[in-house]
Amino acid sequence: MTHTPIRFGIIGCADIARKVSRAILLAPNATLSAVASRSLHKAADFAKSNGFPPEAKIYGSYESLLDDPDIDAVYMPLPTTLHLKWAVLIAQKKKHLLTEKPVALNVAEFDEIVRACEENGVQIMDGTMWMHHPRTHKMKEFLQDKQRFGQLKTVNSCFTFFTDPDFLKNDIRVKPDLDALGALGDAGWYGIKSILWAADYELPKTVTALRGAVLNEAGVILDCGASLQWEDGKKATFHCSFLASLTMNITAIGTHGTLHLTDFVIPYQEQEASYTASAKPGFNELVTGWEPLPSEHTVTVDLPQEVCMVREFATLVQNIKKKGVKPDMKWPTISRKTQLVLDAVKASIEKGFEPVEIVN
């Protein structure tokens, strides 16, 4: 028996909400039921231009949507500074929460949001889409293969994109009163999470921001990086930036093998995604080439990664609604660890690039 689709409302008409609106429309177990903006006209325009069903409700305030008893879940693409207020209210209204990342400005705010979700029995998940791509699951199988990959030793991750002067002056991601974490929150979140993913979500012992971080006049980070160190000797680095060419790399190196991909946040194509795996490589006799050569693996998909994310989230919500199960803590646990490392990077920059110990 198929469950009734989860009815989504969206508060805020950010650009990313266009992509997620499409994902909700394409997900087999979800439907677009409402959109809210602070302007009724803007909400109506958003619904029309993004293919909302004709019966979808249009609201001129976020509160009105949250008071709608026909909404099961809310997608929240608001600026990070507004997350605490609205996420807590969404939970108190018994709506399940799919939120843009970063979840909060710091882990204290994060814990307040998750506490509200727990107290009200609602699911929370952050919108890191690549985590839900089938390629991600296939790559994880390789990382867990002790014969081919071995033990993880190093991870390097990079997510950068070049922005124009208008972005650097006017975008919400460079405004301290809107998205105070800048490139660290917007792009660094992905790098940090990719490292934790490769390390089976084991937190590092220390985090040290790399010297040379670039901040704007308002103190918002435009470019930064950090190194992470574990007690067992594992190490990792990441770089995030609004000032460098579009790059989305992960390289994970084990004792026997290496995983490499160059489009981890958004695959080059919706329909398929590839990665390279190298297992026990060496040189040929004359040291003029490698033996064996790295193998390229392509994963074809029926649904884009953002649709897989919505489908996964809606399934969790259906399980709560129909089966009475408790919200799944896997996703908020992963998000919290990401937020902890993000906080440590920011603290290290503020302390003159000194090492910061992670305290869970």
TrEMBL record:
Residue intervals of the Gfo/Idh/MocA-like oxidoreductase N-terminal domain: 6-125
Gene3D superfamilies: Dihydrodipicolinate Reductase, domain 2, NAD(P)-binding Rossmann-like Domain
Domain GFO/IDH/MocA-like oxidoreductase: 139-259
GO molecular function, one term: nucleotide binding
Pfam families, A to Z: GFO_IDH_MocA, GFO_IDH_MocA_C3
InterPro entries associated with the record: Gfo/Idh/MocA-like_OxRdtase_N (IPR000683), GFO_IDH_MocA-like_dom (IPR055170), NAD(P)-bd_dom_sf (IPR036291)
Family designation: Belongs to the Gfo/Idh/MocA family.
The protein, known as: Gfo/Idh/MocA-like oxidoreductase N-terminal domain-containing protein
Organism encoding this protein: Gossypium gossypioides
Source lineage: Eukaryota, Viridiplantae, Streptophyta, Embryophyta, Tracheophyta
